[in-house]
Amino acid sequence: MSDSSARPAKDRPWVMRTYAGHSTAEASNALYRTNLAKGQTGLSVAFDLPTQTGYDPDSPLSRGEVGKVGVPVPHLGEMRKLFTDIPLTEMNTSMTINAVAMWMLAMYQVVAEEQNPDMSPEDVAAQLAGTTQNDIIKEYLSRGTYAFPPEASMRLIADMIAYTVHQIPQWNPINICSYHLQEAGATPVQELAYALSTAIAVLDEVKGAGQVSDDDFEKVVGRISFFVNAGVRFVEETCKMRAFVQLWDEITRERYGVTDAKMRRFRYGVQVNSLGLTEAQPENNVQRIVLEMLGVTLSKNARARALQLPAWNEALGLPRPWDQQWSLRLQQVLAFESDLLEYDDIFDGSHVIAAKVAELVEGARAEIDRVQEMGGAIAAVDYMKSELVSSHAARRARIESGEEVIVGVNKYESTEPSPLTADLDGAIMAADPEAEQTARASVEAWKAERDEIEVEQALAALAEAATGTDNLMVPTLVAARAGATTGEWAATLRGVFGEYRGPTGVGGAAVAESGAELTAVRERVRATGEELGGRLRLLVGKPGLDGHSNGAEQVAVRARDAGFEVIYQGIRLTPDQIVAAAVAEDVHCIGLSILSGSHMELVPDVLDGLERAGLSDIPVIVGGIIPDSDGRRLRELGVAAVYTPKDYGLTEIMGGIVDVIRKANGLD
């Protein structure tokens, strides 16, 4: 008689990670070792914005940004500290790094060599496993941490892919990242189409570079991985993932002739959606995260290879270790307590799922064709950016109208006091305020100890290689071993490749439908402008290195639709540049958008600059992830209004801007 209570064997669960890094390499190392001890099965490194964009902590652009959204790694010494007592040849490490991915991989490889002095560098490299995100196209579309122009960036990617295929065969040299596309407003069809168009552009670049033989090209395809987003509409997200699997199999088979089905497999990791996490009633974020996790785990044939979850309080600020542990436990309960991993794909044979997948595949194919007709993803960056800004504007409009319900935000807003947020300042972690000074001192000490002649020669060789066609990974490794800094490596390549400023997408965004509320605000904008002798002018500024431009773009688009003349120059401006623009454009109000946590450094710098320019009467408003205590301090310093993610009504914010302008000019 068979034992009916016997349970089937379970599949291996996905790699469980927590996206982490802050303040200093030492603090981040302690966090990593703690998370690994709690059962985390891989590392996911968050770098701070100066590191991501190729600046050292002592750069003027780095002010206020050091150690805020990740860990600063300005040189090899800090990379050593980051992985102290963590054996890299036994680890699977994901690094969320793009523009300077080659540099970070070089330093990671050198640290691994130092950890294994009895092995040859080639043998060490062969044992390294992990992923560098390295997707630059989505940086131009949504995230903003680019460092070089598109063509040069694609060369770096192709060089790195060729190097890893030959030298670090277990490494995923690129993680085509649709995550930030969804954060920027992408529909499922757009997320599919733009991510796959990016993959096509990368593979075409590698093929055209001629560094990989036809026989090895299948290995390149096999090492391409993806990093996707999963929203709360988990049935649609499940279908999106099945559509990704189908389309990638088609593209790799038909466009690139890959015959090995294993090499055509769609391999992806996930960070579930942060866009939908709310500051209002943040406890609701826990169930949102669980539902989002289901969208990428329920379908066995389209299941994520690695998963990292945000914490419930990410819309409030930097999560604490306990908050990250909670998110890790969500994964562990699903993987080890539920029966999910005991079954074949539970959606096979579902006509509902099949129909939705077919709909998404058809829409994505059409959009991929449109991008290809424009010359591919690089040539279509402006088009894709405008489409994303328009999609995001449409989503915001649905939320404002109540058509799209966000529980606790635009419906069911009454709430009991939450014990989780009884102490708001204690509900998040503060980055070390001394991190910037510590990092600056680290760079100064590092430079004092290294051989300057060796560094100069290494950087000169890097520049010379960049002017030709040699693979840049080799001179990059030499520069890392010599002791060059992150800022020096990037500055050397900027000297050859030039600077670049990405498109904003604001000009081409669709105009919002004019409801009663927007019409009323538009009339107030017009009337106030007439009282002041012309059209109202709003300067939207992004100071510092924060590339999360979605909010600024949406404010700029809605302000345009409300009748303002909008001056928006994009990301990565110094406070002095913002003040200069305010002078040149004779603006009536300045709106600053900062989501990186550097508001307490950068906003006062702008206020001081306006005072020096004799423009302290121009009202300044600020938007971002700003704790209540910081908001109070900013208002004390003279900021006219502070907006946070709970202030979702853009048209209402436009009315608030009119109020601020009228008050500043004594009109009320």
UniProtKB/TrEMBL annotation:
Top-level lineage group: Bacteria
SUPFAM superfamilies per UniProt: Cobalamin (vitamin B12)-binding domain, Cobalamin (vitamin B12)-dependent enzymes
Signal peptide: none
Cofactor: adenosylcob(III)alamin
Molecular function per GO: cobalamin binding; metal ion binding; methylmalonyl-CoA mutase activity
Keywords of the record: Cobalamin, Cobalt, Isomerase, Metal-binding
Assigned protein family: Belongs to the methylmalonyl-CoA mutase family.
The name this protein goes by in its record: Protein meaA
Gene source species: Nocardioides glacieisoli
